[in-house]
Amino acid sequence: MSRSATEICNLLYRYAEAIDDGRLEDAAALFRHARIEAGAGGPLDADGLLALWRRILVIHPCGTPRTRHLITNPILDIDEEAGTAEARSCYTVLQATDALPLQIIASGRYLDRFERIDGSWQFVERDYRHLDFRGDLSQHLQAGNRCKAAPAA
Questions:
Q1: CATH number, position 62
Q2: Total number of domains constituting the chain
Q3: Which of 70, 99, 120, 129 has its CA 20 to 30 A from that of 6?
Q4: Bigger pLDDT: 103 or 41?
């Protein structure tokens, strides 16, 4: 795998790690150069995405959403000369809480674009609108935010 491919995949994985650790600010910071499509209401920037997560995600007493995001099957198209890249990947979100045994609660696809900015790869676009399968989101999303349009984060 090329260095660029590794760096881009690491961005995907850092996002998942930060969300699972309840470090929403760190996750949002990865999108500081990005436009995010999250459904109704038009595109968001990193601050808008952080506000959305704070509004819809259930953070449990341990300080985390009690999830594990698995990012798999990244398909990368990298243009080294232009400093741009696109990625299509799958995500599967598992969750276990005091009220919910370990299970898959969501699965879908991320469509991302990246650019090399100041020498490092950065997210410049993410499309969250591809939630393909929903499980029991009652312990992950606030009541009223469990519709198909809400990203599983």
A1: 3.10.450.50
A2: 1
A3: 129
A4: 103
Count other C-beta atoms under 10 Å from residue 73's C-beta: 9
Q: For residue 85, is it within any domain?
A: yes
Tell me, yes or no, whether 151 lies in a domain.
no
Dihedral (Cα; 52, 55, 58, 59), 10-degree rounding? 90
Task: Give the model's confidence band at 147: pLDDT under 50 very low, under 70 low, under 90 confident, else very high.
Answer: low
Q: What is the pLDDT of residues 111-123, one digit of tens each?
A: 999 999 999 999 9
Q: How far apart are CA 84 and CA 114, in angstroms?
A: 6
Q: State how far the Cα of 65 lies from the Cα of 140, in Å rounded to an integer.
A: 6
Phi-psi region for residue 100, left (φ > 0), alpha (ψ -120 to 50) or beta? beta
Asked if residue 104 lies in contact with residue 110, where contact means CB atoms within 8 angstroms, the answer is: no
Burial-class residue 148 by CB neighbours within 10 Å (0-12, 13-18, 19+). Answer: exposed
